[in-house]
Amino acid sequence: MDWGMKNRLSRIIKPKTGHTVMLAVDHGYFMGPTTGLENFEVVKSLLPYADTLMLTRGALRNYIKPENDIPIVLRVSGGTSIIGKELLREGIIVSIEDAIKLNVSGLAFSIMVGSEFERDTLLGLAKVIDWGEEYGIPVVAVTAVGKEMGRDARYLSLASRMAAELGAHIVKTYYCENFEKVVDTCPVPIVMAGGKKIPEKDALEMTYKAIQSGAVGVDMGRNIFQSEDPVAMIQAVRAVVHEEATAEEAFEVFEEKRGK
Ligand code: R5P
Question: CA 247 to CA 53: how far, in whole Å?
């Protein structure tokens, strides 16, 4: 692996613990002004606690100061909306030149394995991985889940392994029962997506189980920025990811930090 690729990967997955808390705030690319992301004020309060920020180029340019040194994972797939007819038909939405101008540490691309548009999305991922290899930028493949797709270990290990076989450097996927099967059959690091907002205790339990199953961290959005106390929640997630806290210990962190 070339120096640039290794350097950028180490900006995403922290060498000290081998783990990462990626903050996913890219939801606007298909959902518009998502609850908690209306003006990015919540995100700004979370920056000191996130290892990496995953977002779109528009949000980056409009809401995040260039002086900020948080590593950026740029969403480069999209082109469809939550109210349109073909949500799963994402394509490439950013040129590699613009990603380089933005000095990103990683590129993120969603694949829709099993959907009508799987081929388009897999070829799009392959193209982005070619760019990543050429310029030394790691690619995070996001295994999306749609109505017609599964959400069990069988499906998620299929999609995750395919992403790795196509050359992705990190795979972001959802938690499921037998998550260790997904991790064990994927040769590259896995980060867990958070999914819809659930009670803080449950989100911390899910995070704990994912880390115990071998995930290198989380790429979590709504369960942090929609929490009743996002700053307390991200610190609790960090305790599980970086400090080997149990779910119970992390919930105590949440309770202790909450409201402060
Ligand atoms: C969806 O594909 C987006 O990339 C989100 O970043 C992803 O769903 C993770 O966010 P959340 O934890 O809110 O599910």
Answer: 24
